[in-house]
């Protein structure tokens, strides 16, 4: 028998129940739970609440997914957990290594869909680039993931699960590393699951990630940005700007057509920043489209007075992407012009291009499509 309270503990994310793992399984999936929720499940089993901390530690800090291996729990409790609960974990189904050390992982989820995550071992920082959706609804014209459309949101357990599995596979559990939500998907379009995953990753008994180590990259969904600014745990924010006029931005990001650049910049000005923090503005450089001297001047003007840094992303080209990468000289000219105007600017080194692990190159066969993708507008209206 499953205790009633435990049965009520289904993952509280936007993803419909039953899409992950055990399709008809009514048992609570412990991978989806924050510490307090896990405590309730443990209490409902009639066990002492402090066992929840032990389980959370085994699962998230040590990456142990079998109750059997949780050796500081009594045999009786392990058996009860095994009967009444599950732990769903994304499975690594392929791992590719780039000549520059970057590694790309293909994960298969409980429903057979696939996502990708990337490990970027730049010294001194180690970075995991994690997905928040299967595919993406934003349809940016230069991004391969955008061409997939959105198959579905990931659950909190699937988002945090990528980190849990990679930390174990790469033996990072006792090492500091950063997380960037820059894999497949738009994190703010899957707000609840993304924030819940971050709470799981931040929990002191888990990987204890601090906000400074996490960067959330968004195409700029305004209501969700406003919501994010009210959170107590706020990651670094990166905003995908990509253009200096509404016309070009609407062309490059068709789902942003309801939005004006000036409103996005105003929202950024309002976004709460801790001492010395800055908002990162990502700017993909497309030859002849948004890389002119006038663009550089307009960009500097747009960001005036903002605590900002600009990260230039020379396009990672791919078949089917109808843009080209500007020459290195052109990238330098653009960067220098910004720097001369007092903008803090860097050029993102492209990592893992030979294994298609670089920005905008993540694309997988997402399995059966879940209807047509929603437009950003509906996401913004949520
Ligand atoms: N949905 C989020 C995360 C996207 S991935 C967002 O829009 O911010 C992280 C960055 O890579 C984004 O700025 C995205 O626009 C950029 N990107 C996408 N395709 C790219 C490509 N082909 N070359 C370079 N950067 C790309």
DSSP strand tally: 12
The small-molecule ligands in this entry are: S-adenosyl-L-homocysteine
Look at the structure and give the mean pLDDT: 89
Q: Class of the largest domain, according to the CATH hierarchy?
A: Alpha Beta
The span between the termini is 38 Å
The portion of residues forming beta strands comes to: 15-25%
Class from helix and strand fractions: alpha/beta
Low-confidence stretches: 1-21, 368-382
Question: In what order do the strands lie side by side in the largest sheet?
Answer: 1-2-3-4-7-8-9-10-11-12
| Percent helix | 25-40%
Number of helices: 13
Question: Could you say how many structural domains there are in total?
Answer: 2
User: Do you know the CATH architecture of the largest domain?
Assistant: Alpha-Beta Barrel
